[in-house]
Amino acid sequence: MNSQNDGFSIASLILGIIGLLCACCGCGFIFNILAIVFGYFSGRNSDGQKSKLAFAGMILGIVGIVLSIIMFIIGFINGTYTSYMENL
After folding, report:
1. Cβ neighbours of residue 59 under 8 Å, at least 6 residues apart?
2. Is the pTM of this model over 0.85?
3. For the chain, what is the largest distance between any 2 Cα atoms, rounded to a whole number of angstroms?
């Protein structure tokens, strides 16, 4: 594995971790997208397989996106429900 692919793998993992930590406040969405993109473009090692760091970064990115969507839905429902009850 060359150093560029190794850098993409490490970047994918770091962005996946940051995106997962920021997912509950809604600002982690871009980090999660970048984690998936860097993991995808990290290339393959000599065995023809993805790096474990890149794979972990992609998985964290996917989990972060799902968590961000769930938190957005919960916030939307909570905010809508609260304002609806105030108008009654």
Report:
1. 16
2. no
3. 65
